[in-house]
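With this grant's support, we have settled on a layout for protein records. A representative record follows, to show the layout.
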Amino acid sequence: MTVRRGRVEDAPALARYAAACFEAAFGSANDPADMAAYVREAFGPAQQASELADPAFATFLAEIGPALAGYAQLTAGRRDPAVAGARPIELKRFYVGAEWHGRGVAQALMAAVLAEARRLGADVVWLCVWEHNPRARAFYRKAGFDDAGTAPFQLGRDLQTDIVMTRSV
């Protein structure tokens, strides 16, 4: 397995992978129209290319052989009111394909994210995770994150609740 920084030329593959991961994780629990609207907005190739080119984003890709096994994305500049710390950074996205669960991909991605947060001088990493995603919440707790509050998340027409989690860097 390798973990590397994403490049603009990765945008088409990342867009397909990101959409597939999001749909696999949340599709069965949400309205198909709401899912389609969100996926179209958040994971299109143009959006991914924009984020990969933006210096405020750090996107990491985990690959096993030629296959994309997961990705993570840090971004600076946003802050939730529940987040303490002088220099926070957001873990905006963190996905590992189900076929790669239990193979160390998530741990490798988290190590890359935390190393980048330290390199950037952040003192806290924060994220939002859907309140109905116990597997992810358990993983984040195991990685040292604690609940800090809640935040709204708009999925199409459906206003949902995310749990804000934080950890010191």
